[in-house]
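Pilot study result, target chain (250 residues):
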Amino acid sequence: MRLIKILPALALALGLASGASAADKLKIGTEGAYPPFNMIDEKGKVGGFDVDIAMALCAEMKATCEIVTQDWDGIIPALVQKKFDAIVASMSITEERKKAVAFTDHYYTNKLQFIAPKASSFSPALDALKGKTLGAQRATISGTWLEDKVGKAATVKLYDTQENAYLDLAAGRLDAVLADKFVNYEWLKGDAGKTFEFKGEPVFDDDKIGIAVRKKDDKLRQRLNEALAAIRANGTYEKINAKYFPFSIY
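Predicted structure:
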């Protein structure tokens, strides 16, 4: 789903980072503002697909886990600084991020797709995006796609959270939003999204989502991979998937 640019100083800090990769007590970092994958309810409890997967992996590893929320822009630096031991926050596996962190195998596959008002004739064709005002969350592959593909031809607005991008779309300040298909799917189901719809086909459809750990924590990465394979085999993953989606997102 999402792309973070790594500062040179952070890359240097990674060489000094280390952690207890085989600890029985782990802290898991997530954003808490990306429903249905991670969100905070009215009682302040963190939940969502990412959180359920994280807790299932912890149970499989017989580890005691604590969920820690962190703003998206600072989530990799917080991992490096040992605020938590792993990131389970719908993070895309990218070559840029691999310079800073290590990833597990993917735990779902994402697509990027536009949504816009049902009444509009919006088209995702590149030549049709000229002059449009388009929104996405900052530091995501959706935002990067917009900047790279149509940054000179369209007005691209980037937001600190996905929720704020939707607010501007609903208020008529955007022609369309580009985001993860499954996050858009969730928003379209609600009252705020009832007059909006997907437009065209996904513009990118092979975005692998993984769990990030510090580069030196290879034992933890291996344990997470083994646990992921186990919950895929024993049906736990399928049950979590069905809780949020009527189709497989793996």
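One observation from the pilot: Residues 4-22 have pLDDT under 50 and may be disordered. A full batch analysis is planned for the follow-on phase.
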